[in-house]
Amino acid sequence: MSEITPDLVRHLGVLARIRLSDDEVERLTGQLDAIVDNIAKVSQVATPDVPATSHPIALRNVFRADVPGDMLTPEQVLQNAPDAADGRFRVTAILGEEQ
Amino acid sequence: MATAKLMDFDKALEMFEPVLGFEVHVELNTETKMFSAAGNPAHAANHDAAPNTLVAPVDMGLPGALPVVNQTAVRSSISLGLALGCSIAPSSRFARKNYFYPDLGKNYQISQYDEPIAFEGAVEVELEDGTIVEVPIERAHMEEDAGKLTHMGGSTGRIQGAEYSLVDYNRAGVPLVEIVTKPIFGAEHRAPEIAKAYVRTIRDIVLSLGISEARLERGNLRCDANVSLRPRVAAGEPPAPLGTRTETKNVNSMRSVERAVRHEIQRQAAILAAGGTITQETRHWHEDTGTTSPGRPKSDADDYRYFPEPDLLPVEPSIELIEELRAALPEAPAARRRRLKTEWGFTDLEFQDVANGGILAEVEATIAAGASPAAARKWWTGEIARVANAQDREASDLVSPADVAALQGLVDAGTLTDKLARQVLEGVIAGEGTPQEVVDARGLAVVSDDGALIAAIDEALASQPDVLEKIRDGKVQAAGAIIGAVMKAMKGQADAARVRELILERANQS
Amino acid sequence: MTDLTRLTAAELAASLVSGEISSVEATRAHLDRIAAVDADIHAFLHVSDHALEVAAGIDARRAAGDDLHELAGVPLAIKDVLVTTDMPSTSGSRILEGFMSPYDATVVARSRAAGLVPLGKTNMDEFAMGSSTEHSAYGPTHNPWDLDRIPGGSGGGSAAAVAAFEAPLALGSDTGGSIRQPAHVTGTVGLKPTYGAVSRYGAIALASSLDQVGPVTRTVLDAALLHDVIGGHDPHDSTSLAEDWPSFADAAREGARGDVLKGLRVGVIRELPDSGFQSGVSESFRAALARMEAQGAEIVEISAPHFEYGVAAYYLILPAEASSNLAKFDSVRFGLRVDVPGGTVEDVMAATRDAGFGDEVKRRIILGTYALSAGYYDAYYGSAQKVRTLIQQDFDQAFAQVDVIATPTAPTTAFRLGEKIDDPLQMYLNDVATIPANLAGVPGISLPSGLSVDDGLPVGIQFLAPARQDARLYRVGAALEALLVDEWGGPLLDRAPVLGAATGGRA
Ligand SMILES: [Mg+2]
Ligand SMILES: [Zn+2]
């Protein structure tokens, strides 16, 4: 019943920014198909009258006072940088545009 | 890039009805960021921060870091929602908007999606001639800004052709309120003007609330303008469906918003009239050429996979808090204009001059600093506006209301003539200091020492005996020649009225 | 003379307070033990090179008469999911190899403040995705009871470390059973606190609405002592509960002494069938219940009709949240970067994530991306959130009738390494009994109930309590533990095979 196809898996790989090889696409298609068949049963009991729960313990209005703190030094910010220049992170050319 | 074909604006309006929509992002001026305690670069204290010096773990998406909501940002957002005439949601929540981009530390933006904090409002927008247009507001929601990319190695500094980019996360996490309008119908030929007036009104509102620095050139206020056209139909027929819209991003001055909307209407009309179709896409505004160019097409890559942010809890403001903030709201801009016009005693034209110049707050502050309404208006709509135009800057960036009031004070005290005052203003704009400091440094004060003036007058009278005769014969207007000579001798630093008085005195004495 | 590694944390703490031993001695004993057995166990990804220095500092403070926490000087193993400033934090992934956090997780900071001595970072399934620790990028951990078997997961490293006497205490994290299921297969104790009872700040997120940090130990009292150190409100975690928690150590001591079992109503779930459970597991479970009943506990059958949807809901919510949480590993700010000659940053990100993530992580990211994507959200993620509501309602109804719920912690004893690695669905079913607690946010503890008669391997019993009633679990757990240890004539781990050469510091 599930609709997992290699094309869908490839598209999901693009969304998730993972370069999947053809082998991986093939393997994942089969595995996801089986998994999705299995987990799709949630819809059997998820009727419209049941509210959704996003947090296990219901809290609200958790705020922080507007007081500065927690700042990292520029050295700490860049301490794990794969590449940096001029106090900033360096990345190779960007193709797409910002959202 | 090929120049787009444009249709004449009036002709475009004959054939099509423009439908507008705006998304304005307002950077709040809180001390700290939306979800971290790092200093906020949109706060006055942090303007000059070096790259990556205003970064807490969550701003750069460090493993294990968690967001915590800034209470002041929530209060500011509620105030803004109320000022936009919106309802405040009894419960709103944050969601994750998932997409990969190097300026986005977590590769998701925490925003609000299905439950924004404010919804369903309207703002009154006043056009140049005093007409009031109501712009319907769909929602205002809280979110965080992204970091800043600098594209290096290309000739243009733009993304195209750059070899690499540098990322600074100072701006990542700056509190934003995004205000989204409903589609605006009926704008017709005033569409560009409405666009400009809408942005100006939002700026007035956030300034009066004191929740943002609201400097467009700094990106504190950023407008995305949506434009679509639909063909006109004969009377009595059902309206045509909405046309495909384009979204022109980040237009960073009020004048540019106006120009961009006008340009988009003309560009789309030309395409549609030629039988073409509009692509749904973002477009970029180019200030230099006054044109837009295509950006990212909308596609199925725009699957943001929104879901409720599990790290944050719902925001449920109490009725008491909402009413407290409502009671503290400043006057609505339109009401404020009506009041100020009466208080200042301006004519319709005089007032529109001020209002349309976007300098209402400046004039008000100048009057509060001691200048008369007439003097304040004269400076801001006159000399300051002229310089702003010539330098293509915002008038409010050139000089402070306090300096303008001080300048007028020097004129009123007789220290400066109008002409000298304009020179002093020039010095103030050039950054030479306060008006008094410029006067001192440039030695521009009026020569108020009668002795020096009398010496100059006597000399002029002596060298022009015929004029002296005429004055003594009662032809007072002949004094003009002597005034001119004296002013020249004084290098303009004399009060002409006083010189005239002294000339008459001396002529009749000797 | 005592082998210091065989002492519980409570015993070590008492000897440290009395001055019988020093923290340096205790720490060195454990480092020696790690050196002797960890080549076989592989519980640690990193062993601290300054633990002895830290221990010496505690000894000096004690000598100077400083007011120290009762656990000061006791060694601690830290699951690699928790970020630490002085040791790398990888979450078991290649993509974070060598990553040094500029800040400590709150639980780590609190442990340091209490004077606990970090020994090292323990192995785990990559990003805590797994039930066997076979999905670690750095190789599997082996079960001290049988080196060919899994130590459970994702926190197999922490459980194996305490089971192999390499550390008396360890920190774990539990998203669907990652503390409790390893406890079950290694004969140790683990507790998943009420969601929000312990800060998540600095725990590398798997699924934010399910993750909870907790103690991994050999005794219930030790778990309670560690929980007292790490728990409590943290303003850096918005989901942290602002409660005044009772002393869990007091609760455990009270449970071990008193007769808390008398009149205790223990729920057993009708819908958790015997059929899916290994017979030795079911038998051990029933025997433990019988022991409790003999002490006056009342066994009550309860119904939890929606628990059977728990695994399905969990395998939608977890991948969805994980797909978003793991997006930050993109080669820009930290971690692995795979160069793509002539490639754009998009290419570099995609190649890095392909090379840096293991199969299970990719599988779940793709699954989660699917569950959240336009057009599928309502059917999958939305429905799973509704199942969550139904499971909470099941718990509410059950806890109206009983004080605690008891289940076997997992369906089988430790399976063989490699046995289920290629069958994700089978692997996922390991969590059937532990997942409901994470979905509902309630606390759960696993402690040894005995050895399975069919294979001689450890079996754990799980108790669940209403949200915020963590103390009840320590009370009940300590009571049953006292009964069983008495019956066994010593801790269950005394029956584990001897590892490597006999080692351990002497005092
Ligand atoms: Mg937008
Ligand atoms: Zn936005």
TrEMBL record, chain A:
<dbReference type="Pfam" id="PF02686">
    <property type="entry name" value="GatC"/>
</dbReference>
<comment type="subunit">
    <text>Heterotrimer of A, B and C subunits.</text>
</comment>
<comment type="function">
    <text>Allows the formation of correctly charged Asn-tRNA(Asn) or Gln-tRNA(Gln) through the transamidation of misacylated Asp-tRNA(Asn) or Glu-tRNA(Gln) in organisms which lack either or both of asparaginyl-tRNA or glutaminyl-tRNA synthetases. The reaction takes place in the presence of glutamine and ATP through an activated phospho-Asp-tRNA(Asn) or phospho-Glu-tRNA(Gln).</text>
</comment>
<keyword id="KW-0648">Protein biosynthesis</keyword>
<dbReference type="InterPro" id="IPR036113">
    <property type="entry name" value="Asp/Glu-ADT_sf_sub_c"/>
</dbReference>
<comment type="similarity">
    <text>Belongs to the GatC family.</text>
</comment>
<keyword id="KW-0067">ATP-binding</keyword>
<keyword id="KW-0436">Ligase</keyword>
<protein>
    <recommendedName>
        <fullName>Aspartyl/glutamyl-tRNA(Asn/Gln) amidotransferase subunit C</fullName>
        <ecNumber>6.3.5.-</ecNumber>
    </recommendedName>
</protein>
<dbReference type="InterPro" id="IPR003837">
    <property type="entry name" value="GatC"/>
</dbReference>
<keyword id="KW-0547">Nucleotide-binding</keyword>
TrEMBL record, chain B:
<dbReference type="InterPro" id="IPR004413">
    <property type="entry name" value="GatB"/>
</dbReference>
<dbReference type="InterPro" id="IPR014746">
    <property type="entry name" value="Gln_synth/guanido_kin_cat_dom"/>
</dbReference>
<keyword id="KW-0436">Ligase</keyword>
<feature type="region of interest" description="Disordered">
    <location>
        <begin position="282"/>
        <end position="301"/>
    </location>
</feature>
<protein>
    <recommendedName>
        <fullName>Aspartyl/glutamyl-tRNA(Asn/Gln) amidotransferase subunit B</fullName>
        <ecNumber>6.3.5.-</ecNumber>
    </recommendedName>
</protein>
<dbReference type="InterPro" id="IPR018027">
    <property type="entry name" value="Asn/Gln_amidotransferase"/>
</dbReference>
<dbReference type="Pfam" id="PF02934">
    <property type="entry name" value="GatB_N"/>
</dbReference>
<feature type="domain" description="Asn/Gln amidotransferase">
    <location>
        <begin position="361"/>
        <end position="507"/>
    </location>
</feature>
<dbReference type="InterPro" id="IPR017958">
    <property type="entry name" value="Gln-tRNA_amidoTrfase_suB_CS"/>
</dbReference>
<comment type="subunit">
    <text>Heterotrimer of A, B and C subunits.</text>
</comment>
<dbReference type="InterPro" id="IPR017959">
    <property type="entry name" value="Asn/Gln-tRNA_amidoTrfase_suB/E"/>
</dbReference>
<dbReference type="Pfam" id="PF02637">
    <property type="entry name" value="GatB_Yqey"/>
</dbReference>
<comment type="function">
    <text>Allows the formation of correctly charged Asn-tRNA(Asn) or Gln-tRNA(Gln) through the transamidation of misacylated Asp-tRNA(Asn) or Glu-tRNA(Gln) in organisms which lack either or both of asparaginyl-tRNA or glutaminyl-tRNA synthetases. The reaction takes place in the presence of glutamine and ATP through an activated phospho-Asp-tRNA(Asn) or phospho-Glu-tRNA(Gln).</text>
</comment>
<dbReference type="InterPro" id="IPR023168">
    <property type="entry name" value="GatB_Yqey_C_2"/>
</dbReference>
<keyword id="KW-0547">Nucleotide-binding</keyword>
<keyword id="KW-0648">Protein biosynthesis</keyword>
<keyword id="KW-0067">ATP-binding</keyword>
<comment type="similarity">
    <text>Belongs to the GatB/GatE family. GatB subfamily.</text>
</comment>
<dbReference type="InterPro" id="IPR006075">
    <property type="entry name" value="Asn/Gln-tRNA_Trfase_suB/E_cat"/>
</dbReference>
<dbReference type="InterPro" id="IPR003789">
    <property type="entry name" value="Asn/Gln_tRNA_amidoTrase-B-like"/>
</dbReference>
<feature type="region of interest" description="Disordered">
    <location>
        <begin position="234"/>
        <end position="253"/>
    </location>
</feature>
